[in-house]
């Protein structure tokens, strides 16, 4: 199937020429190109058109999950009939394994991986192995070790009329599917008489296969909730339930190699008299070996990936990139941030792993389960397009063609930028201030001034973004604004990704009028309702107030004709001057263009889709389930606790200690609730 682009607008402004130039570049075989397009110039739509023109599988790389989710949603709308998938790490939501020697703290990998993220990751690899009209929107997670695609592919089963029952069952087990008698979940199957039902890892759907004389007959697709039949099928392909797969042969080889490495390592630790470390390593590795031997899998199996893949020490691991065909197109969004992030991954990871190895938590080979180095990454990619409003050095040095996009499709011009003082009564820098409004005497200071600006906008249903220098300041300012009766929320790195997406959606919907942030209200966010960007302490030169940070932040209001920016600063820094001069230069060019072509700028029109729908299940579910349990009567809570205790014991007996621990925590919460309720009753 081909990519078929659907949109209710046409390329406009500089988009048509950018699309043409990039497409030609790709067809001429250019390896690296940059789309240097101003903020809000519709770079995503330009790229969508290029994808439509070249018809190749695409990897879109973004530097954070909020942006990746926004992009994924946009591409899904542009390509409704094609496979657009989301591939991010669940460690971005949860804690990876680490050891902090200074405080002797071992942080176990959080076992509660987000099922929904996992499902989407499986849907991504599955799409890549079964079709060519695929766009994967990924975070840097895509340069981390993943099972070998060859091993993964080897396990895929094709169930069709006549497939034998024994084969299907055996292969499901080999693919790490779990058998259940209860409700089907992702990656489980159930057998009752001649009927086998399976839910793949990648979709919340049940496939029901009825066997007759040990051979598959009817295959139907069922809705798991309503159990309504969604259709009959001639066949179904089922993909493994895990990304790390091994055949009995590779498993034996891996087990032998792990044992050999363990022996060698223990001898070394012994010679160094590191008894505690040796004991720790021996216990953990032997346990893992046993698990792998008995059930073919253990938690954290990816740490042994070198032995499973048969790679030499130091050799690059398999990653998502290896699931793509050779001719895929790489698009790096916000490349000025994403490329340096890719470059930094390897070192950060090695430091963490080395500490784990040194202290006996892992074998030395664990360091080979790692992200790619930048050079390895560069080698694995073919043709790439870097996308940014403020390209960095890497883009400038490596691009064979840089395509500019300055005129926005909607005629919108860069926003007006003014500077106002931070402190009350300061002298105002004359050339950048809106005339009479600010006589030095009347000026109330940045916060009061900001509040006045917000209050002007609330009745018009216009939103405001504010950036501060620290999380603490963002929270304090939010508290202060709440006291003033303003509907406001803060958004910084401590806010979980899914919640961040929620805050931004709620800002668009009007649940909030203001969002205060530090470094997240920048690249890529498409919030057409925002008409004011207030940048506090704009004159504190540094990373957060550098030229490109300022340009990116200013760009957030380049989606609304009313868009304005206020830089609060008592002085003019070099970065401020360069950012303002560049903004004014473009503004002038855009206004002239509009005059010449008789264009009236239009605010972006965009529906408020809730990106959270992409991540519909997952952690919120757990919370909701608990919430329902908590509203129950005390005697009902007792029953739930009893049930969970049974499950916990069962889990422990099955060596599922992590699951047992989760259940134990839930029981704790419920017991607390039970006691409170009892107390309330007696009072
Ligand atoms: N040809 C067009 N006609 C009308 N609207 C468009 C067109 N192209 C893009 N848009 C809209 O413009 C808005 C901004 O586009 P987009 O987010 O792709 O900008 P961008 O160039 O990536 O900006 P940033 O640098 O901030 O990421 C989107 O809401 C998009 O739907
Ligand atoms: Mg963008």
How does this structure look, described?
- The protein has 683 residues and is an alpha/beta fold.
- The protein has five domains: 15-149 and 312-388, Rossmann fold; 157-238, Penicillin-binding protein 1b domain (Penicillin-binding protein 1b fold), CATH 3.30.2060.10; 248-295; 416-597, Rossmann fold, CATH 3.40.50; 618-682, no CATH class.
- 42% of the residues lie in helices and 16% in strands.
- It contains 20 helices and 23 strands.
- It has a seven-stranded parallel beta sheet. It has a six-stranded mixed beta sheet with strand order 8-9-10-11-12-13, covered by helices on one side.
- Strand 11 (206-212) and strand 12 form a beta hairpin.
- Helix 7 (248-271) runs antiparallel to helix 8 (275-295) and helix 19 (634-653) runs antiparallel to helix 20.
- The longest helix is centred in the last third of the chain and has 26 residues, at 657-682.
- It starts with 14 loop residues before the first helix and ends with a helix.
- Bound molecules: adenosine-5'-triphosphate and magnesium ion.
- Magnesium ion binds at residues 43-44, 333, 524.
């Amino acid at each position: 199937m081909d990519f078929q682009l659907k949109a209710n607008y046409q390329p406009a402004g500089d988009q048509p020429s950018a699309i043409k130039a990039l497409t030609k570049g790709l067809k001429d075989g250019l390896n690296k190109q940059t789309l240097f397009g101003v903020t809000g110039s519709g770079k995503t739509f330009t790229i969508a058109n290029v994808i439509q023109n070249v018809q190749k599988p695409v990897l879109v790389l973004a530097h954070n999950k909020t942006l990746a989710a926004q992009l994924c949603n946009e591409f899904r709308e542009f390509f409704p009939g094609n496979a657009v998938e989301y591939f991010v790490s669940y460690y971005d939501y949860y804690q990876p394994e680490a050891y902090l020697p200074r405080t002797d703290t071992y942080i176990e990998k959080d076992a509660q991986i987000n099922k929904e993220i996992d499902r989407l990751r499986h849907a991504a690899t599955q799409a890549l192995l079964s079709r060519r009209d695929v766009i994967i929107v990924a975070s840097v997670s895509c340069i981390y070790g993943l099972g070998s695609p060859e091993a993964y592919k080897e396990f895929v089963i094709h169930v069709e009329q006549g497939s034998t029952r024994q084969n299907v069952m055996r292969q499901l087990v080999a693919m790490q599917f779990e058998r259940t008698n209860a409700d089907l979940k992702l990656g489980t199957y159930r057998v009752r008489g001649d009927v086998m039902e399976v839910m793949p890892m990648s979709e919340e759907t049940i496939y029901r296969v009825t066997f007759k004389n040990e051979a598959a007959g009817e295959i139907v697709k069922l809705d798991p909730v309503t159990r309504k039949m969604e259709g009959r099928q001639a066949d179904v392909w089922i993909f493994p339930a895990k990304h790390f797969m091994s055949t009995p042969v590779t498993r034996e080889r891996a087990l032998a190699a792990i044992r050999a490495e363990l022996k060698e390592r223990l001898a070394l630790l012994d010679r160094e008299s590191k008894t505690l470390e040796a004991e720790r390593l021996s216990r953990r590795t032997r346990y893992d070996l046993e698990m792998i031997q008995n059930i073919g899998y253990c938690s954290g199996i990816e740490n042994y990936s070198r032995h499973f893949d048969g790679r030499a020490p130091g050799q690059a691991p398999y990653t998502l990139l290896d699931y793509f065909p050779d001719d895929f197109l790489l698009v790096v969004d916000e490349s000025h941030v994403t490329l340096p992030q890719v470059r930094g991954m390897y070192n950060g990871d090695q430091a963490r792993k080395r500490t784990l190895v040194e202290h006996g938590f892992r074998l030395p080979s664990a360091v080979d389960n790692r992200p790619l180095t930048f050079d390895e990454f560069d080698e694995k990619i073919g043709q790439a397009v870097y996308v940014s409003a403020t390209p960095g050095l890497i883009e400038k040095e490596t691009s064979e063609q840089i395509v500019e996009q300055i005129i926005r499709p909607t005629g919108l011009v860069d926003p007006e930028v003014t500077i106002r003082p931070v402190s009350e009564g300061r002298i105002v820098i004359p050339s950048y201030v809106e005339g009479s409004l600010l006589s030095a005497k009347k000026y109330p200071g940045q916060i009061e001034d900001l509040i006045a600006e917000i209050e002007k906008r609330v009745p018009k249903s216009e939103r405001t973004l504010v950036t501060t220098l620290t999380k603490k300041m963002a929270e304090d300012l939010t508290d202060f604004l709440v006291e003033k009766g303003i509907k406001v929320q803060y958004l910084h790195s401590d806010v979980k990704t899914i919640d961040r997406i929620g805050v931004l959606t709620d800002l668009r919907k009007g649940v909030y009028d203001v969002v205060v942030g530090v470094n997240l209200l920048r690249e890529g966010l498409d919030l057409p309702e925002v008409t004011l960007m207030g940048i506090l302490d704009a004159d504190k030169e540094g990373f957060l107030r550098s030229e490109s940070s300022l340009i990116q932040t200013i760009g957030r209001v380049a989606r609304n004709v009313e868009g304005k920016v206020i830089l609060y600063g008592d002085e003019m820094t070099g970065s401020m001057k360069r950012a303002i001069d560049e903004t004014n230069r473009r503004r002038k060019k855009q206004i002239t263009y509009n005059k010449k072509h008789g264009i009236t700028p239009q605010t972006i029109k965009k529906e408020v889709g809730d990106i959270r729908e992409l991540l519909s299940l997952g952690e919120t579910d757990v919370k909701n389930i608990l919430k329902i349990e908590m509203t129950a009567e005390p005697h009902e809570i007792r029953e739930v606790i009893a049930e969970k205790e049974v499950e916990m014991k069962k889990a422990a007996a099955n060596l599922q200690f992590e699951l047992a621990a989760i259940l134990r925590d839930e029981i704790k919460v419920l017991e607390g609730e039970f006691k409170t309720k009892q107390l309330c009753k007696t009072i």
